[in-house]
Write a structure and sequence with these properties.
4 copies of one chain form a homotetramer.
Chain A lengths: L8 H28 L5 E6 L6 H4 L7 E6 L15 H12 L4 E7 L3 H10 L12 H6 L3 H7 L5 H20 L3 H8 L4 E7 L6 E5 L4 E4 L1
Helix pairs in contact in A: 6-7
Chain lengths: 216, 216, 216, 216
C-alpha cells in the first residue's frame, strides 16, 4: 500500500490527549475488556453522519454497545445470496454470536442520505438512478417508505417523515431475518426505533400502541 | 411495526444525562451544525466492536468525523452491480458529496470478525463457509489477507497480523474505487491505516516507507 | 488523601441524568425527607452482588428502606465485645433508633460468597482458611449451614441449598440480638427471608409452616 | 426458624410490579448476567440510609456496581485478626476477586450515624460510649475525624464537615489494606470520595489538588 500516509498530526495530538486522560482514567477497565472480551447489552444502528452523537447520548463508549453505522441507518431485507452484506453480517453477529438484548435503530434530522432518496424518488436527482450510484442503490431500500409519505404537502415535513420511515423500514426488514424474528418471539431480543433532532437535542421513540414517534 | 418496544429506561436516563450536560454545553454549536449541515474533515472506518473507542480517541463527537462502522472495518472491492452496498455507499458519499480530506481505516486487537475469518480459512469454522452465513460471506473480503499471514507459526501473532491485513486490504480496496483513486491522485484525499490495542491503549499507524505498522 | 481521584466522567454523566430526571421529578419529596429525616418501614439485608436488584424489586429508592448490603447477606451472631461490628450496628440502628417494622433478609442465586464458603468447607479453597482472609473469616458465619446441606449429591443443588441456608442462618442470628428478639416478641417487628433467582427473576420466601422456600 | 413470617403483601405487590415491567424489559440481560457472572466496573460504599439514592444516581441496577452499604459508609482499618469483618471482606472480594477498577465512597447529608458520632464525641450521648453499643463501637472508626472538625463553631457546619471526614477516613483506611494500596500503586484501581446533599440533589467530589470537596 504505497499510497497510504502516516496519521495526520492533528489526529495524533487528539489521540495523545485521549491516552493521557480517558485511557489513563479507565485503563483497568479497558484491560479487563481486552482480556475477557466484549459483552455488549445492545446493538445500535445509526447513521454515519458526523453530527449523530450515538456514543455520547448513551454513554456508549464503555464496552456496552455494539455499533453499526451506515448511510441513513438502513437495514436491507434478508438476502442470503452469498454476496457481501455488511449490515446483515453485523446484525447476524450481534444477535447470534453476542446475543444482545436490544437492537436500537436511530434516525436523525437533516439526514443527507434520506434527502438523496427523497430527491431521487421525486425525480430531482436522476444521477442517483444510475446503476453505478452506490448511494442510489443503497437508498433503494427506502423506496417503499417514500411511497408512504409522498403525499405530505410540506417538503420539510415530508423529509422528516421519510427519516422516520427509514427507522421503521429498518425495523421491518430486521424482522425478515429468521434469527431476529425467532429471538424476538422468544423474548430474548427486543427492537426499538428512535429519532434524534440534532439541533434541539430531543429524542423521540416509536410507540407501536400509538403507531407514531413520541418525545422520550 | 407492532413488535417494536419503547426505549429501555436505562437508556432514557443516560440520554437525559447527555441532554443536561453535553448537549446543554454545546447547543449553539449543535444548532449551527443542524442549520448549516455537516462538514466533516475525515471519514473513519472502524469496527462495530463495543470496545473500539473511535469517537473518544479522536474527540470525534463534534461534527467532524463521518463514521462508518462494520464488522472488522472492511471495505469490499469496487462492484457497481446495482445491488445494495452499504460500505461502498458510505465511501462514495464521503468522497464525492462531503469531499472529506482523509479516510482513516482503524483496526483493533481481539477482533471477533477477524478471528472468525482466521478460523474459517484454517478449516476450524465450517459453519462460516455456508452460503447463508452473512458473517462468513462478509469475511470473504479478507481471504487474500489470510494467505499472506497463514505461515506465521504463533497463533496469536498470526491473528494480530490478520487484523492488520484487514486494514491493508481495506486500503487497497479503497483504491479500486475510481473516485477514491482520482481524489488521492490529485491530492484532495489521503488514506491512512491505524490499529488500536484495546488493552494497553496504544495506536499504531501504517507507514508505507517501512511497509509496516509503527506506534504513533 | 493525596491518592483520591475526581469522579470518573462516565459516572458524572449518569449522575447528571438522574439529577435532570428522577431528582427533578421528586425534589419536593427529597427535600421533605432531608428536612424531616428518614422514616423507613423496613430494613433489607442483601448481598453486594451487582446483579441483585433490591431497590428495583421493591421500588426501594424513595426513602422507605434502610438497606444493608454485605457479602452473602449474612448477619453474625450477637457479640457485644467492643469491636467494630458493621452489620450488628446496622441492625441495632434499624431496630432501636428507626424502629423498622420489618427486616427482610434477601439471598440470591449464583452467590460468589456462598460459593467460596462451599469450596472452603469442602476443602477446595485452602486459601480461604487462612487467618488473614477476610472473606474466609466472614463466611465462617455460614459453616453451620454447610453442615446441613453437605450430603446433597448434586453440586449445583447443594450450592443453591447453601444460599438459602445463608438466609436462614441470618434470620437465626438476628434472634440472638436481645433487642430484635424482644421486638419480635411484642409484635413490633417481623423478620422475613427471601431468595431471588437472578436469571428468571423469580422470588421465593421462607414459610415456617412448610419449613421451606416457596415462590411468591 | 419458626419466627419468620411470609413476605408482607405490600412487598409482594411491588415485586410483581417489577417482574411485569423492569424484569420483563431486561430479562435477556438478566439471564446473561446469571449465566456469565457479574463483571462490575466499580465498587460503591455508601450508607444504609433510606434516602441515599446510590443505584438511582449511577443507574447502578444493571450489573455494573458492587455495592456495600453500612452505617455512615465507613471502612475500618486493616485488622486481619481472624474475626468477622464484613466491610473488609467486601473490599477484599471486590479488589482481589472481582478486580474492580474504581472504589467510590459516598457520604451524604443528614447522616444519623455521623450525628451519633458527633454527639458521642461531644459528650451528649453517653449511651453510645457503652461497650455493648454496636453503633457506638462502629462509629469509633470516625473518632479521629471528629478531632479535625471539633473547633468549627457552627453545629450544623461541624456535622457536615464530619460527614465529609467519614468519606476521607474511609479513603485513608482503604489504603491500609495491602491489596488496595498495591492495586492503587500499579494503577489498576483508583479511589474516589463523593458526598451527596439529599435535599438539593447536589453531588460533590473530593479533589486532592484542592484538599476539599467541590460540586461535580
Amino acid at each position: 500500500m504505497h499510497n497510504a500516509k502516516p496519521l495526520p498530526s492533528y489526529l495524533v495530538q487528539r489521540y495523545q490527549g485521549w491516552k493521557a486522560t480517558t485511557y489513563a482514567e479507565n485503563k483497568t477497565w479497558y484491560r479487563r475488556l481486552a482480556e475477557e472480551g466484549q459483552r455488549p447489552r445492545a446493538m445500535v444502528i445509526s447513521c454515519c453522519d458526523s453530527r449523530v452523537h450515538v456514543t455520547s447520548i448513551f454513554g456508549a463508549d464503555q464496552g456496552e454497545f455494539f455499533i453499526h453505522r451506515n448511510i441513513a441507518n438502513l437495514v436491507p431485507p434478508y438476502e442470503p445470496d452469498g454476496d457481501h452484506h455488511g449490515t446483515s453480517a453485523a446484525v447476524e453477529y450481534a444477535v447470534t454470536a453476542l446475543k444482545v438484548a436490544h437492537i436500537v435503530v436511530m434516525g436523525h434530522s437533516g439526514c443527507g442520505g434520506v434527502e438523496g432518496c427523497h430527491d431521487m424518488c421525486s425525480g430531482k436527482a436522476p444521477e442517483l438512478e444510475e446503476k453505478s450510484s452506490f448511494v442510489g442503490r443503497w437508498m433503494d431500500i427506502l423506496r417503499p417508505g417514500y411511497e408512504k409519505v409522498k403525499d405530505i404537502a410540506d417538503e420539510s415535513e415530508r423529509k422528516r417523515a421519510l427519516e422516520k420511515q427509514a427507522v421503521l423500514t429498518s425495523l421491518e426488514n430486521l424482522m425478515s431475518f429468521p434469527f431476529v424474528a425467532s429471538a424476538v418471539e422468544t423474548g430474548d431480543l427486543s427492537v426499538h426505533g428512535v429519532w434524534n433532532d440534532i439541533g434541539d437535542g430531543s429524542l423521540e421513540h416509536y410507540l407501536p400502541t400509538e403507531d407514531g414517534f413520541k418525545v422520550v
